[in-house]
Amino acid sequence: MSSSKAISISRRKSKLLVILLLLPVFLWAEPYRAAIVTDNPGYQGVLEDALLLLSGDVTSQTAIEARREKDERLKKIEREKSISQARQDEKSPSENAETAAEEETLSLELVTLELSDTEKEFLYKGDPDATRYVLLRDNLDLLLVSDAAEDGMLTEAVLYINGEESRRTLYITGEDGDEFSAVVALLKPLLKDDDTIIIRADLPYAVSVSVDGNTEVPVRGYIAAERGEHSISYSSPGFESLSQDIEVGDDTVLTAELIERPVSSLFISSRPYDSELFINGMKLDSHTLPEAPLPFQVTARHDGFGTYTIQSRMDLDKLEISLRPEWMENEDIVKDAKDRFYRNLLTTLVSFGCYVASGSLEDIYPEAEFSPVTGMLAGFSFVGLVELFDSMFDYFQAARLGI
Fold this sequence. Notes:
alpha+beta
């Protein structure tokens, strides 16, 4: 005689179990979050371009394993909060999660952090506790911190990757091509597998490269492609289209003998090349204009990129426009420049008003010896005026360039 024991699970507990089983998949669906912390605009451009070149799916096994371990830790914490006991003879949610996670992909996303001056100070020193705190608080997978300072014609920079000093360098300010290549070499093993090759695209500025039908925008003359045979297409409003099959390897350089199309009075090249173009508010059907009105205003826009507008009173025959991806936009720069300008304006008005008042009191009460105070206020007013003009120029540049 055999007997069977029925195991009942309440509806509430079954829903909880399903949620716990799916939790790692939800966590895995989150992007691979990266952030940059630096006060040097030049070095920030180096880091942003390096991440842009390596953007897309994260295929590095190091990154995938780190994400899997991170998800397992979060899942374990959540499970310990919700379930006190689990059946040991059944497949655990952890094993189910790992099976599901293997079928997912990670996509790189650059995020902007809001940090206090104290937090930045500790991060610039590579403090491990501060790094772990920011990584956990902002749910980051990759944190790039650079303490870069310009001294005349030279820039000295220290790069920390997730709190570890990875590079210390000195280079000529503005000549950062070698530094860009070095940073890419550091970040590539963290984001891409060994089959991903960084190849040189020795092509004219306005040419768009398509690899197996997927458009790639060269970053500082480089693109990332998988090792092996690919169909490469080149297209641009200024050149005839061309296609070729190549074998991508370690020493591959993309070159193409492109036939340039006749250029009209004004040729507008844009990156991406299929951006929507407007001149004085009117949409253009092509990148060439037989005659350009003077003065003119050209606006370029593209899905996934920021909008860019430029004005000119000069008779140009060629105009080059490069749009920044939306994920790299920092909307706080214009606001910060505006706040600094108005803050300096208020400070200058107050100090100048105090200077005028002190001078008047000195004339009324000459025996009171207001001269030292008046001189000091005059100095404050002069310094405030210099700061005011400096912040006004920064505000104008930020508002005009949209950066």
